[in-house]
Amino acid sequence: MSTFADLRPLERAREQRAWYFYDWANSAFATTVLGALFAPYLIAVAEDAVGEHGRLHLLGLAIAPGALPSYTITVSTLLGAVLYPLVGAVADRSARKPGMLAGYAWLGSGSAALLFFLTRDTVWLGVVAFLVANLSFGASIVINDAILPLISEEHERDRASSTGWAYGYAGGGLLLAINFAMVKFHDGIGLTESMAVRLSLLSAAAWWAAFTLIPWRGIRRHAPVDVERVEGGVLHRSFGQLAHTLRDLRNYPVAVTFLVAYLFFNDGIQTVVASASTFGVEELGFATGDVLLAYLVVQFVAVGGAIGFGRLAARVGAKRTVLTGIGGWIVIVTVALVVPDRNFPAFLALAAAIGIVLGGTQALARSYFTLLIPRGKEAEYFSFYHAMDRGTSWLGTLTFGLVYQLTGSYRPAIFALIVFFVVGGALLARVDTARGMRDAGTV
Fold first, then answer.
1. More confident residue, 94 or 60
2. CA-CA distance, 363 to 373, in Å (whole number)?
3. Where would you find the membrane-spanning parts of this chain (predicted)?
4. For residue 152, how many C-alpha atoms fall within 13 Å in the half-sphere facing its CB?
């Protein structure tokens, strides 16, 4: 009788390597555009258009230029809250997840490329282009994270998720290093600072589009399993599955508790990340090039942070490790309240602290959630997860924008985010992992 070796672990490893490269690809947008350059550049061109103390007017609202990026992200998230559950419902009924992933990535990167044309005369074009890019970014992440449980066993997920985040920080950091040099030394290469920033935004779009080819080609199609039987066309069936899942959520109270906890602590994380460059330039008085250097510190420290948190989770569990990270975030926003102006070493130390907790907290939250969701509904549950996810936070950015508009200072605005970490941590502490796994059938 002949025997055959089990090749499934090798196939999973091959797909996981391809999957890591989507984090490498999309982190160009997350770092260069969303994290480092878009917000301060949008503020600069908006102030150039209306004056430092002027207001932009839209639908009868007067908007301070300094609050425009926060409000833009808020609108993006409100739209995403409607879009992402439908994206997830469609994805759960399809084996074409790699194609959907690439489609959203290329729509997002094409929209991000339009930011090259953002000037004082095209402020609203830039806002709309960013809205489409950020929505597409979030939709692609819904699909990407839903692929994780399809290409990994439960015992592999903390490692695979952490490795993916490490790839992301390495790839995003590499491009950011190039863009840092271009912005910092723009005079030496014959560019204005504005043109250097615009070329950096364009480079992020190109990077995102190009490296998406690797997961698109390297991840195979996985047939959907255990989907709810609903009659009609794809949209009708997808809305039907979404309605069923909303009704069925009451059967997974632990997953719901985690989602609410994630809403709070991740909104805090994403708002700190999205607002850090604004804080550095507008509040602490650093040049754009200096802030880019701080972002480089975040990116490369976060590679080690993600891997280190993954190893810690192997010893003490993902939940305890995430709670440790949340404690770190509480310290960070408290220190930001009192960090001295124009003290670059202090700012770099704060950036390093963010890097340590950033990757590990998010990577392990992703892998931990896979334990609490039923098979066949990964994309749909991750769509709810990402309605609250990175770069699409809305409670945090709205709070940050409102506190800045009321106080005229970014210090109380960033410190106000401590509420999100305290509430999120308290709710996460109440999550019963063993019960959640029993309810979802993943144990």
1. 94
2. 17
3. 21-43, 63-87, 99-118, 124-143, 164-183, 195-214, 252-273, 293-314, 321-340, 346-369, 390-407, 413-431
4. 26
